[in-house]
Design brief:
The protein has 231 residues and is α/β, with parallel strands linked by helices. The chain has one domain: Spore Coat Polysaccharide Biosynthesis Protein SpsA, Chain A, CATH 3.90.550. It is built from 8 helices and 10 strands. The strands form 2 sheets. Strands 3-2-1-6-9-8-10-7 form an 8-stranded mixed sheet, sandwiched between helices. The longest helix has 24 residues. About 5% of the residues have low confidence.
């Protein structure tokens, strides 16, 4: 019996409102390929019960510091969750999807075919942000600016990567804007890109609650700290 080709890793911290939709989209993939679903529980709410309804493996994420050269720091929670899921995953490819993101039913087959055809180690795809109209500016940035960068930024809510490349690049670093940091590091040695079709829907809830200006400030602040950490 062969193992899964793709492992979906979904970090979930206080995501009861969105989680079922994300997991249903993974469960309903139209593919003959074997794949698995891992949910990383970072809160202790109803996440484990919801995950098991969709036959997902639950990975616990205790809140703790991590030793680092004799010092202890608090790891970036989302980076830590993704890495814990990756450690338990058995697939040749890892599909990191956030708990407020729903993937297209053909996601597995489409992303595999695209990555193999273009000889990519990692890929994302065009997205649709679900929320207020002002979210369209950020959606356009992800869909039309990120793919054109010399080393494309692959957003963490939709990050499809070959296991070999993930391990070689060290996984998501525990710094702010960990997906940008990992994308840039991965792109130094591996080819990455964007699937041309709209394959995922993800929530624009931060823009809805903080506005476009507040959201941009939030990510610029995170990116400042990422750069200070030399990523």
């Amino acid at each position: 019996m062969t193992g899964p080709v793709v492992s979906f890793v979904v970090p979930a911290k206080a995501e009861e409102r969105y989680l079922s939709s994300a997991l249903a989209s993974v469960r309903d993939q139209r593919t003959d390929r074997e794949y698995e679903l891992l949910v990383v529980d970072g809160d202790g709410d109803a996440t484990p019960e919801i995950a098991r309804e969709y036959d997902a493996t639950v990975v616990e994420q205790p809140e703790s510091g991590v030793a680092d050269g004799g010092r202890t720091h608090q790891r970036s929670a989302i980076a830590d969750a993704r890495h814990r899921g990756a450690e338990q995953a058995a697939g040749d490819w890892l599909a990191f999807v956030d708990a407020d993101t729903a993937v297209h039913p053909d996601y597995v087959d489409a992303m595999l075919a695209f990555a193999r055809r273009e000889d990519l180690a990692a890929a994302s795809s065009r997205c649709r942000l679900v929320g207020p109209a002002r979210a369209k500016l950020m959606e356009a940035t992800i869909n039309h600016v990120f793919p054109r960068l010399d080393r494309p930024i692959l957003p963490g809510f939709n990050f499809f990567v070959r296991r070999e490349a993930y391990d070689a690049a060290g996984g998501f670093p525990t710094v702010p804007n960990e997906d940008t940091a990992f994308s840039r590091r991965l792109g130094r040695d591996w080819a990455t890109g964007y699937h041309p079709d709209v394959l995922v829907r993800t929530s624009a809830r931060r823009i809805a609650s903080s506005g476009l200006t507040g959201t941009l400030y939030h990510y610029l602040r995170l990116d400042y700290h990422r750069l200070r950490a030399d990523y």
